[in-house]
Every structure is written in structure tokens, then in C-alpha cells.
Amino acid sequence: MEKVDLYRLARERMVETQIKARGIKDERVLKAMLKVPRHLFVDEALRDQAYGDFPLPIGEGQTISQPYIVALMTEALELKGNERVLEIGTGSGYQTAILAELALWVYTIERFPTLLERAKKVLKELGYKNISFKLDDGTLGWKEAAPFDAIIVTAASPDIPPPLVEQLAEGGRMVIPIGDEFSQTLIKGVKKGGKLHTKALEPVRFVKLVGAYGFKE
User: Fold this and answer.
1) Closest Cα to residue 131, out of 194, 186, 86?
2) Which residues lie below 8 Å from residue 31, measured CB to CB, with a gap of 6+?
3) Residues 6+ apart with CB under 8 A from 49
4) Which domains does the chain have, with CATH numbers?
5) For residue range 12-44, what is the model confidence (pLDDT) as tens digits?
6) Burial of 13 by CB count in 10 Å (0-12 exposed, 13-18 middle, 19+ buried)?
7) Among residues 92, 51, 88, which one has the least CA distance to residue 168?
8) What stretches of the chain show up as alpha helix (H) in DSSP?
9) Per annotation, catalytic residue among 65, 92, 157, 183
10) Cβ-proximal residues to 135 (8 Å cutoff; 6+ apart), any chain
11) Residues in contact with 121: Cβ distance below 8 Å, sequence separation at least 6, in sequence order
12) DSSP label at 9?
């Protein structure tokens, strides 16, 4: 059997056993996770582990999140297809690809040049044309492109960075892990009346969000 088919089967198994089985119901999210070739976003040496139920290292002390967590965070954004989404932490570019499948446009910020260039290359090769990239401190957001219908933060912050709340549109959704560097809670916020109304989703473990409104270096 061709390697390509094995990866497709691995994706199908991932969606069935890791994602659907844990209660992810959004059909658009499930379809995107079935489509995006996760193995292309990790080092060749790790490709056979790409569809496992765990995060993987991608360099610079960063990781590609566990598939279920990607699905959970994406579902919480409630994307319908016409949204402008801000992603803080491009990382491998895998979450970026999932968002690009589901939203009108994705604005993604990364602080490591090596990761940004590699993600950009993979995403371009896969044919995505609805993504804007920026090398910057993600805790400052992307003021010139605001407001955003949804914001996803793929690193843990001690608190919700105020610029991100400001740049979220009224009625917009934000998903962010909040806590110390060892344990966090995934928070979903909805902006109503200019304020972010939050609820806890579940305990998570992410790398630190470093920046002016995050952890210090």
C-alpha cells in the first residue's frame, strides 16, 4: 500500500478515535482535520508519529499541539466561513492550515523566524492563499488588520493580553490557555458590550506565550 494511503488511513483513525470519540461534533472541523496532511508539518523523522494522540517537537522549544486540542480550540471558535481570524503562534503551521480551511482569512503571528519561514513554505506548497504572516510579539496582536471575528492563542499566558481583547470584534470569540508555565486552563471568551465574558473549557499544557503581555523571556 502506498505511503499516501497510509497517511490518509491514519488521519481517518485520528478523527474517529481521538476527536469524534472525545465529543467534537462540528462537521466542518472534522472535515478539515480529515483533509489537512498533518505529517507535512513535522520533521521527516517524526512523520510516522504525526497522527498520534500527543504533541510533537518542532524546534525552538515549541510543539505541534495534540490533534484533539487543535480540534477542541478550533470548534470553540464557531467558524462558519466568513470570518477573519487572528492566530497567535504560527508554530508548525498546522493549526493555521485548519483555520484557513474554515475561515475567510487567517492572520498569523510567530516570534521565531525559522518556524515562520518553514510554516510559510509548507502552507504555500499546499496552495493556501488566504493567510497573512507576521514576525512579531503576538501579545500585541495585529492592530492594522483588526478587528477580528475570532482569535486563537496557541501558547499559555498568565493573563489575557489586553490588546487581543481590544482587537476582537463585538460578538467575536477568543480561545486561549491561561495559567502558569506548568498547568493551564483553556478559556473561551465571547466579547459582549466591549467586555470579554469567559468560561473554562478544560485543563491543558502549552508552551509559554512570551511577549510584552505574556511571560518574560
Assistant:
1) 86
2) 101
3) 42, 56
4) 54-204 (3.40.50.150)
5) 999 999 999 999 999 999 999 999 999 999 999
6) exposed
7) 88
8) 3-14, 27-35, 67-76, 94-102, 113-125, 162-167
9) 65
10) 109, 110, 111, 113, 116
11) none
12) H
Query: Which neighbouring-strand residues pair with 192?
Result: 195
What angle is formed at CA 115 by the lines to CA 55 and CA 3, rounded to 5 degrees? Answer: 55
Sign of CA dihedral 169, 31, 28, 155: negative
In the block, cell 467534537 appears at: 24
CA 2/CA 18 separation, integer angstroms: 24
pLDDT one-digit tens code per residue, 155-207:
999 999 999 999 999 999 999 999 998 899 999 999 999 999 999 999 999 99
Put simply, whether the predicted model's pTM sits higher than 0.85 gets the answer: yes
Residue 65 among the catalytic residues: yes
Region class of 123: left (phi > 0), else alpha (psi between -120 and 50), else beta: alpha
124: pLDDT strictly greater than 90: yes
Q: Three-class SS of residue 183?
A: coil
